[in-house]
């Protein structure tokens, strides 16, 4: 495994202002939201908005290096979308981590690209493909066959869309928590009602599941020995024990780990 590693995820809501501008609509927000959803359904058969209309409300990450691991989140509670992007993109100016995601190639990175352009930001450390740093011609964050960005959904499907799987399903299958409790998508409601802790906990939960799957992926590929894999699993458990907002994640992980032989002993049973 090449350190540092940055596992990340974004949460979004429909950018009503940009949608109104794009389609020439003059409506109150609630009517505008319904109108944009209807237009999207008519043009694509799906309510999933075009990528440029996804306004970022949270970016969460798990940073792992020789010093340990750290969860972090940048959300709209304290930052504008532009500031969230500036903070996240500045990471790549200082370090060049192995970036890990689930569906990041098709969603997270393109959304970050569009929204960074919308706000007039520069991010050569993330989007350079060799025009500035010639070495990135052979290993950059965009090329699906390079190792600088590992999109686990893409890689585990062997780059075949017919084989794509949901993060929640694979996490459960492998003995990890997946979504805790209600797996519904409540991000717009969290933002509307200012439930920022729920928003960041939701986003960080996806990051944690992605990180745990990445460890298993590295074990599969021989990039981690079994003893090192187990050490990182135990380090993650010990770290989360210091993070009270993820007590439920740990509790569900403990229960789910009992469902597979491989993860059965991740949480040793206390002895009398």
TrEMBL record:
Keywords: Exonuclease, Hydrolase, Nuclease. Pfam families: DNA_pol_B_exo2. Residues 46-253 form the Predicted 3'-5' exonuclease PolB-like domain. InterPro entries: 3'-5'_exonuclease_PolB-like, RNaseH-like_sf, RNaseH_sf. SUPFAM superfamilies: Ribonuclease H-like. GO terms for molecular function: exonuclease activity; nucleic acid binding. This is 3'-5' exonuclease. It comes from Acinetobacter wanghuae.
């Amino acid at each position: 495994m090449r350190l540092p590693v940055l596992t990340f995820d974004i949460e979004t809501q429909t950018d009503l202002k940009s949608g109104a501008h794009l389609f020439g609509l003059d409506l109150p927000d609630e009517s505008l939201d319904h109108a944009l959803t209807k237009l999207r359904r008519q043009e694509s058969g799906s309510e999933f908005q075009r990528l440029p209309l996804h306004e970022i409300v949270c970016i969460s990450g798990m940073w792992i290096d020789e010093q340990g691991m750290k969860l972090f989140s940048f959300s709209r509670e304290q930052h504008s979308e532009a500031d969230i992007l500036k903070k996240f993109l500045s990471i790549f100016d200082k370090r060049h981590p192995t970036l890990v995601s689930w569906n990041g190639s098709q969603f997270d990175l393109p959304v970050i690209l569009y929204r960074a352009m919308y706000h007039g930001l520069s991010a050569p450390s993330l989007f350079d493909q060799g025009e500035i740093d010639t070495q990135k011609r052979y290993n950059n964050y965009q090329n699906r066959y390079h190792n600088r960005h590992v999109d686990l959904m893409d890689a585990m499907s062997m780059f075949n869309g017919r084989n794509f799987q949901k993060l929640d399903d694979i996490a459960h299958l492998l003995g990890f928590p997946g979504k805790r409790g209600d797996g519904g998508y409540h991000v717009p409601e969290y933002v509307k009602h200012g439930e920022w802790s729920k928003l960041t906990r939701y986003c960080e939960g996806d990051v944690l599941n992605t990180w745990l799957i990445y460890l298993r992926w590295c074990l599969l590929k021989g990039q981690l020995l079994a003893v090192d894999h187990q050490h990182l699993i135990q380090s993650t458990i010990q770290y989360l024990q210091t993070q009270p907002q993820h007590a439920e994640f740990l509790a569900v992980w403990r229960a789910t780990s009992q469902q597979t032989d491989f993860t059965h002993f991740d949480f040793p049973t206390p002895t009398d």
